[in-house]
Amino acid sequence: MSDILNINPLIYTHQTEVNENPETKTETSHTEISSPKSPVQILYYTDPICSACWGIEPQLRKLKLEYGENYQIEYKMGGLLPNWENESNSKINRPADVAHYWEEVGNYYGMPIDGDVWLEDPLSSSYPPSIAFKAAQIQDDEMSLVFLRRIKEMLFLEKKNISKWEWIEKAAIYAELNIDQLKKDFEGDAQHTFKEDLDISKQMGVRGFPTLFFANADGMKIELYGVRPYKDFEEALLKLCPKAVKHQNYKTHEGLFDYYPTLTTHEFAVITDRHDSDALDILNSLYKSKFIDKYISKKGILWIKI
User: Fold this and answer.
1) Burial class of 205 by CB neighbour count within 10 A (0 to 12, 13 to 18, 19+)
2) pTM value?
3) Cα(58)–Cα(265) distance, rounded to whole angstroms?
4) What is the domain range of residue 279?
5) What span, in angstroms and rounded, lies between the C-alpha atoms of 162 and 171?
6) Residue 10: per-residue pLDDT
7) What CATH number has the domain bearing residue 107?
8) Is there a domain that residue 241 lies in?
9) What does the pLDDT read at residue 33?
10) What is the pLDDT of residue 86?
């Protein structure tokens, strides 16, 4: 996998393996972040089509379950793919080039990623789904995260071109957003808030995705970027909030689906501290008992609470 650390940022920007890439860092940052509303404030720079961001979904979901009461996270859009006119990397300069790399990195992360979308209905830009997310945020922060999760599932598992309004609208309906208001904000205020995200990301020196800035009320700051093991996220939080106590907000496997209605096999494994093979056995048992359903993609399964 070492060769993928230096290729086009559309696919692999600043990811890390279990051994940290020398170009990535975990350090105290001088970046200006607003005063935390919780013990720890996190700014998360991401993009709906970022495969590396999809790769850290298990870690972020586990962190929320175990330490969610100790931090607030604010999602910022980074504008990963404005269009294809500016993509001149020697390895990636057209949509078809993305397909193979997506599947390679999906296998490495353990998260299902079907690269065929770039062959069958390629995205022209990541801006439309990013602006749609900002429009969803204007309505409701929690529903916006449901929306963001859904468009990621559509893209990475279902091969849907989420730059098209028809899929944005379907995801918004799933998230129970007001479609008329979403459309209005998409064409108006969300354009401005998206631009603000891009401007601030430049000021903060964001060079790739995922990038997370942690800060506490004492002015301590930590920057994490790249795909990292769960312990790195946990250690960053505990360094800024040493009194944080780990909680398990679910009592049973079924209870986990009350918290997260959809889970990939690897997400279930990371959250429950199991190997993927053991997680698959448990999930198949829940499926046979008709507690969950499943969507089978080319590269893996999404388990869905019934």
Assistant:
1) exposed
2) 0.90
3) 10
4) 253-305
5) 9
6) 54
7) 3.40.30.10
8) no
9) 60
10) 67
Give every strand in the sheet of 40-46, ordered side by side.
27-28, 221-225, 211-216, 40-46, 71-77
Q: Chunked in runs of 10, what are the mean pLDDT values of the chain (306 residues)? A: 36 35 37 67 98 98 97 97 74 86 92 97 98 98 98 98 98 98 98 98 94 96 96 98 93 96 98 98 98 97 98
Give domain status of residue 62, yes or no.
yes
Contacts of the segment 100-106: beta carbons below 8 A, 24+ positions apart: 101/4, 101/7, 101/8, 101/11, 101/12, 102/11, 102/51, 103/299, 104/4, 105/4, 105/11, 105/12, 105/15, 105/51, 105/52, 105/55, 106/51, 106/156, 106/299, 106/300
For residues 170 and 279, membership in a common domain is answered with: no
Residues in Cβ contact with 259 at an 8 Å cutoff, skipping those fewer than 6 apart: 65, 249, 250
Return the SS3 of 115.
Answer: coil
The pLDDT value recorded for residue 85 is 84
Residue 294 placed within a domain:
yes
In the chain, how many domains are there?
A: 2
